[in-house]
Amino acid sequence: MKVTRLLTALIAVVMLAGGITHLAAPEFFFPIVPSIFPARLAVLGSGIVELAIGLAVLVPRLRPHAGLAFAMLCVAYLPLHLWDFVRPDPIFRPWPLAVLRLGLQLGFIAAGLRLWRGRIGSVTHS
To answer: Transmembrane stretches, by residue range (predicted)?
Structure first.
């Protein structure tokens, strides 16, 4: 139960803060968006998704689904983090900071999956 509370708080804070920041200062995130995507739409859209996940994780009935959505969103962001290692103008410098960011992303994926898998123990089989 303690782990669930910790993961819930972590995901809520990360997603709500991220969503608010994406909507309040979208220009900050434009350099991260690959040029094949419309930057404003991608940033604002991801901000809305982040807010939805951040709110959903606070609702016990929706929490497992929010955990899975969080993990899936982090997986979707993973190529951007990997791209930063090879792009000519990396966003995260120095290189160890990019490694730390990648490790944090993998930890976020694990946290979301852990929260999602927590639903299995509450299901009864007949």
So the answer is: 36-59, 66-83, 95-116
